[in-house]
Structure formats: structure tokens, C-alpha cells
Design brief:
Elements: H1 2-18, H2 21-30, H3 34-46, H4 53-57, E1 62-70, E2 92-95, E3 98-101, E4 103-106, E5 114-115, H5 117-120, E6 126-136, E7 140-148, E8 152-156, E9 159-164, E10 176-182, E11 185-195, E12 207-213
Antiparallel strand pairs: 1-4, 1-6, 2-3, 5-12, 6-11, 7-10, 7-12, 8-9, 8-11
Helix pairs in contact: 1-2, 2-3
């Protein structure tokens, strides 16, 4: 990472000296640190080129979400709620405070933040799930690069890839990198993310971000990827 950062810095310096849009684009594609990503994107747009940052980075922007389920005393992390047993978008289930069902959710955040407080409100001691169908043109090795400050689990095609039962340790782009193998065609990605009982203002965030990349962090886009949602597009 340090070598990559130094290399991107050199490209940015050269791009500034030459006022080169192509070099700014090269820096943007190579950058992995948020400050360099933002600097590259801003400079590129100032040259007149439009930047679709979520697409450049490969963030997953459109999901089906369901919740809230119960996480009283943090017990929900270990409970296999219905979405872990079946995916039926037409079904409804008993949630924490009544029946819950799947709904569409999209984010227009530049770094793909899926903030379900926008869907359910600022709830505590709850669990939600997010589901995405990712279509791969071929079988391939990838990484799921995920950021989340809450407890979470991730499955690919029904197989649990990784889980972390820890809360409010901060969040950053590419916080976790999980190796996975996509099959050719449709792949089901399921994320479970939890919220605990703490009431401080900095504990209210209930969100995650995830992108699909190669081992170097370069984006791998799904064959069925839709255009990045606009800021005015409804979340539901």
C-alpha cells in the first residue's frame, strides 16, 4: 500500500504539471486511499471529464433489504433468521416489532455507503440483511472489499465467507478484503449487519459499503450492473 500511494502521488504530481486528464484518470484507477481518490476525481472533473466514482471503484449500489430483526443483548448475530435459510423476495417474516418484508434500496453515495437508517430509522439492538445478485461473465477469483463499523456476516451463494462480531471500531474503504470465487452467471451476495445497544451519537450509524475487485483492488463490474443511482433517485 505504501508503494502504491507513493506511485500515485508521483502520477498526480506529473498530471498537475502537465494538466493531463489522462494522467489524472490513471491516478484515479490506481489509487486506493480516499484522499488520493478524491483528489484524482476532483482534478479529472475540473478538466471537463465526468467521473462516476462508484463505477470506477466497483461499489455495489442497488440492494434488496429486509429488517429489522431482534438483536437484544447482541444475541441476533448468532441467530439464523429466515434470510439465512431461504431467499424469497415475496415472503414476509416476523421481525422485531411485527412483520417485515424485502424492499428495494439504492444508494447514490460516492463511496457506496448503504445506510439503512434511511430505510428503517435510527434503531438499536436490531439486525438487517441486504441481498444483491451479481452476474459474472465467467468463473473468476475476486475480492469482496467491505467496510462496516458494526457486527456483520457475508455469504456468497449460500456459503458463509466471513463474520466479525465487533461493534463501533470505525469504518473505512477496503477495511476488510475477503477472497472469493464467483461462478459464471448469477451469484447471490448476502450481507447481515447488526446494531447494538449503545446510545452515544457515534454509535447510531448502521451501514456498510462493499465493492468487488481483483487482488490489487481494481474494480470488477458485474455484467448486470445498472447505472449508478442519481442523488435524486428514491432510496426505496
Amino acid at each position: 500500500p505504501e508503494l502504491r500511494r507513493d506511485a500515485v502521488a508521483q502520477v498526480l504530481e506529473k498530471a498537475e504539471a502537465e494538466k493531463s486528464a489522462d494522467l489524472y484518470g490513471k491516478a484515479l484507477r490506481a489509487a486506493r486511499d480516499v484522499d488520493q481518490i478524491k483528489a484524482s476525481a476532483k482534478a479529472l472533473e475540473e478538466t471537463g471529464r465526468k467521473v462516476d466514482l462508484p463505477q470506477v471503484m466497483g461499489f455495489l449500489m442497488r440492494w434488496k433489504v429486509i429488517g429489522p430483526f431482534d438483536n437484544t443483548d447482541r444475541k441476533g448475530f448468532a441467530v439464523a433468521y429466515p434470510p439465512e435459510k431461504e431467499i424469497d423476495f415475496g415472503a414476509s417474516y416476523e421481525g422485531k416489532d411485527g412483520k417485515v418484508k424485502w424492499s428495494d434500496f439504492s444508494t447514490s453515495d460516492s463511496f457506496g455507503m448503504v445506510d439503512v437508517n434511511l430505510e428503517y430509522g435510527e434503531l438499536k439492538q436490531v439486525v438487517a440483511y441486504a441481498h444483491n445478485f451479481y452476474e459474472s461473465p465467467e468463473a473468476q477469483e475476486v475480492q469482496f472489499r467491505l467496510g462496516c463499523k458494526n457486527a456483520w456476516k457475508i455469504w456468497l451463494n449460500g456459503e458463509l465467507l466471513f463474520a466479525r462480531d465487533e461493534y463501533h471500531r470505525g469504518i473505512r474503504v477496503d477495511q476488510y478484503a475477503i477472497d472469493a470465487k464467483l461462478k459464471k452467471g448469477k451469484n447471490a451476495i448476502l450481507v447481515k449487519f447488526c446494531q447494538n445497544e449503545q446510545m452515544q451519537s457515534w454509535t447510531k450509524e448502521w451501514q456498510f459499503q462493499i465493492r468487488v475487485t481483483d487482488a490489487s483492488g481494481a474494480a470488477i463490474l458485474a455484467a448486470n450492473r445498472l447505472p449508478t443511482p442519481k442523488a435524486t433517485e428514491k432510496k426505496r
